[in-house]
Amino acid sequence: MTALAVVLALGAGYWAGSRNDAMPNAMDTAAAPAGTAQGDASGEARKILYYRNPMGLPDTSPEPKKDSMGMDYIPVYADDTPDDSGVVRVSPARVQTLGVKTALAENKVLDAVVRAVGRIEVNERTVVDVAPRFEGWIERLYVNAVGDPVRRGQPLFSVYSPELQSAGEELNIAERLQRSSAGSDPVAAEAAARLADATRARLRNWEIAAPAGGKVPSRQTFNAPANGVVLEKRAVQGARFMAGEAIYRIADLSTVWVIADIFEQDLARVRVGQAATISLDAFPGRSFEARVDYLYPTLNSATRSTPVRLTLDNRDGLLRPGMFAHVDLASAGAAPRVTVPISAVIDDGARQVVLLALDEGRFKPQPVKLGQRGRTEVEVLDGVQADDRVVVSANFLIDSESQLKAALSNLSEADEAATTSYEASGVFEAADTESGTATFTHEPIPALKWPDMTMDFGLDTPELTADIAPGTPVRFTFEQRAPGEFVITRIDEVKPGAASAASDSAHGSH
To answer: Which sequence ranges form a coiled-coil region, renumbered to this chain (predicted)?
Structure first.
C-alpha cells in the first residue's frame, strides 16, 4: 500500500510541479532503438538487454518508453548483470571480509561408516524354561542361585506330586484289571486296556516315563535341558508350584546378540550380512567382529530408529547381557568416489548446491546430487568433478536457514547495499502528517537518472519537517527501501545565497 501511495503521489506531484529539460544522457539513451548498443569509453558496443522502470518498480520493456510521469525507462546492458550461468563476482576485499575458504573436490575412499549404539542381550534362541506340567511341591533344590552354570542333564530339583501319584495308581489298577479279565470277560479287559492307554498318554504329556508293568514314582527329579546359566529361579525348597509355572530359566551364553538402533536416515545403508565392528566400554582398545543378522521391520516413532541385530561369539564368557556397545557398520566399500567437505553443501530443503570458486573472484552456484555421507566428506554423484574448487566456509553461510537461502544473492548484492542512499537539493513544498509524506521540488538526481521535478517522498519521522516552512530551500537525504518507495531520512535547510549558487551551478551543468 505504501508503494502504491508513493507512485500515485509521484504522478500527482509531477503534473502539479514544473519540469526542466531531461538530462542529455537520459534522452540519448531513450533515442537508441531496442537491442542496439552505445559505445563505451573504449569505443566498443554495449548490448542492451531490456529497459527497466526508472522508479524501481518491477516493470520492464523490450523497447524504449516513458513511465506515467514522462520519465525515460533505463537501459540494462548485458555486461551489467551476471551471466546466464549465475556466476557472481566478489571483490578480493569482500572475500577476505566474509572469511571465504575453499577446498578441492577429491577422488577418494569415503569414510562412510554408519555408527550406532547398542547393548548386549541374551540370544533368545538359546533360552529354555523348566516348567512342570503338573502341580506339586518342591522337595529339594540342587541348583539354588541365579547365575549358576549348569550342564545338560544336571539335576535341578526334585518334586512330590499327588497328581502324579494318583495317575500312577490308576495305571496300576487298569493294568491288573486287564490281566485278570483277559480270559473271562473280554469287554472288561478291553475297557481296562483303554484306561491304561489313556493314563500312559497323560503321563507322556507330563513328560513322565511310564514303565510297562512298573510303578510310576510319585516323586520326580527335573534335569537341565541344555547347557547354560540360570537367568531366573522361582524355586524355593518346600514351596508349592502350579502346572505350567516356570521354576528355572536357563540360557546358553556361548553366543550373544547385539541390538543396535539405526536412525531412519541411515536405513538405506544397512543390509543383512554387512560386516560390523563392535567396541565395548568394558574393554577399551579391543574390538569384536560381527555381521548383521536381522533388520527389524518396525520403527520407533519416538526415536526415529530401527533395531538391527548382530550375533557375537562369546565362548570365553567376556560379554555380559546389558553391556553398552558401539557399533560401526562399513557401508561405503573401498571404491574411490568424488567427495567434497560437508560444509561445502548448501541445503535449503529443496535442493543441494555448492559454490564453485572460479578465477578472479568469481563464484558459481552449482546444483549437485549427493550420495553417501561420511564423517567429514559427502559423495557427489553429479555436478562436481575431482579437482573442482568449492567454497567450504563463509560467515554468511551458517547459523540460520534464512542465511542459507540468501547466500547466493548476498554475494552479488553485498556491494550494492551502499548505493541505496541518495542526496538531493530542492525546495520543501508541503507535508501530510496523516500519510507521513512530504512534497519536494528537487533538482536532477543523476544516480537515479531523475530529471528535476516535484514529487512526494515518505518521511522516516514526522519531526523532520516540523520546523521547516513551505518554500524553504533544503538539502535532503533519502533511501530506496522498496521498489517505488523512497523515504527521506535527513533534511538540512540551505541559506538563500547558497541555494541560489547551487541552483545556478546545477542548471549550468546542463
So the answer is: none
Q: Alpha-carbon dihedral of residues 348, 351, 355, 356, nearest 10 degrees? A: 170
Gap between the Cα atoms of 79 and 63, Å rounded: 18
3-state per-residue secondary structure call for 43-58: CCECCEEEEECCCCCC
Q: Which amino acid is at 245?
A: E
Dihedral angle at the C-alpha atoms of 229, 234, 239, 242, nearest 10 degrees? -110
Q: In this predicted model, what pLDDT tens digit does every residue of 103-155 receive, in sequence order?
A: 898 888 777 678 899 999 999 999 999 999 899 999 999 998 999 999 999 99
Q: What is the CATH code for 88-110+335-414?
A: 2.40.420.20
* pTM for this predicted structure: 0.48
Dihedral pair phi/psi, residue 204, rounded to 5°? -65, -40
| Exposure of 268 in the CB half-sphere (CA atoms within 13 A) | 4
Read off the pLDDT of residues 442-485 as tens digits, 9 standing for 90 and up: 999 888 888 888 888 999 888 888 888 999 999 999 988 777 78
Domains 2-82+417-508 and 125-250 share a fold: yes
Cβ 289 vs Cβ 308: under 8 Å: no
Query: Pairing mode, if any, of strands 228-233 and 248-251?
Result: antiparallel
Number of Cβ within a 10 Å radius of residue 321: 15
Domain 252-330 has CATH 1.10.3260.10: no
Amino acid residing at 166: S
Residue 374 is placed in which grid cell?
A: 561420511
User: How many CB atoms are closer than 10 A to CB 115?
Assistant: 13
**From the centroid of its chain, how far is CA 406?**
19
Task: Identify the CATH assignment for 125-250 out of 1.10.10.10, 3.30.40.10, 3.100.10.20, 2.40.50.100.
Answer: 2.40.50.100
CATH topology of domain 2-82+417-508: OB fold (Dihydrolipoamide Acetyltransferase, E2P) (2.40.50)
The closest of 310, 324, 137, 118 to 220, measured between CA atoms, is 137
